[in-house]
Amino acid sequence: MNLPGGLPPIHAAEGGGGAVPASGGAALASARPRDLRRKRRRRVFEKLIESILFLSAFTSVLITLGIVYILVSESVTFFREVPMSDFLTDTQWTPLFDDAHFGIMVLLSGTLTSSLVALSIAIPLGTVIAIYLSEFAAYRVREVGKPLLELLGGVPTIVYGYFALLFVTPLLQKLIPSLPGFNLLSAGIVMGIMIIPYVSSISEDAMRAVPMALREGSYAMGATRLQTATKVVVPAAFSGIASAYILGISRAVGETMILAVAAGMQPNLTFNPLEPAATITAYIVQVALGDLPHGSIGYQTIFAAGLTLLLITFFFNIVGHALRRRFREAY
Fold first, then answer.
1. Distance in angstroms between the alpha carbons of the first and the last residue of the chain
2. Greatest CA separation found in the chain?
């Protein structure tokens, strides 16, 4: 029987089912190889991306191991000449003089003092800014203010150094007339300003990740926005906030140019921020730019100082990891 419109008849197959037209079967047969080729290309592409990601991660591990190897191998050569006890207990650091002393505590005192000054500014201000952006700021204010704040992290540190030397130090000298031109206080203050974006941005991201249900439950109990922010959101996001603090500490300990420009390079065993002092990073810059022959004991000191700096940052990273595991909340 012919169908209307001149369509060909469709014959019933055995068992009451419908037969597939010959043209439709050919289309299905040709579609299967295309699907297989497409899936094969997709698997090859995914394997390629996976290999690239693996090589990237493996390269970063190799670079880290290479850095550790160089520091350790060169430091071993240094400690063959200088006893570890003198390195840790001597109160003078004059490796470039005829009467050489190698007391790392002199450089550590400047590093720790400047870092404490910077963190006393960066951590409170960064946390307050993060709470405001996360819990109080309007959407438009947050979307404009956060990128502007993060721009501070992109300013070259040499610019911060001269800002500390030529602007902050004269300003502080009006308040403290006896303040010398090079001092740890102005360098630490500017370094704290530089670290604020690191603390505030990561802390704000951690607070924004707290589920809204916790805030709504707090509001339902009659808490204010400030009480909710300080007693609900901040404790819930503490693992992320701790990571921001650890990053800020590592950034402060490893800062170089601000301290080299504004704090002076005079080795001075002091914990007084009103005095000039040298830090580990500033000393490394001083020696690296000098004319010391490769392999001399004076040249080897930069590797011993660098290894000390690496161990300090490694210690803080372990502390941060422990804090994240201890206070991490899963929602």
1. 67
2. 115
Which pLDDT tens digit goes with each residue over 189-238? 999 999 999 999 999 999 998 999 999 999 999 999 999 999 999 998 98
DSSP 106-143: HHHHHHHHHHHHHHHHHHHHHHHHHHIIIIIS-HHHHH
Handedness of CA 288, 289, 293, 294 (dihedral sign): positive
Q: How many CB atoms lie within 10 A of CB 157?
A: 16
Q: What's the CA gap between 102 and 305, in Å, rounded?
A: 10
Give dist(CA 80, CA 200) in Å, integer: 45
Tokens encoding 251: 């950034």
CA distance 329 to 331: 7
Q: What is the pLDDT of residues 10-57, one digit of tens each?
A: 444 444 444 545 555 555 556 677 777 788 888 888 989 999 999 999
| Adjacent-strand bridge partners of 93 | 102
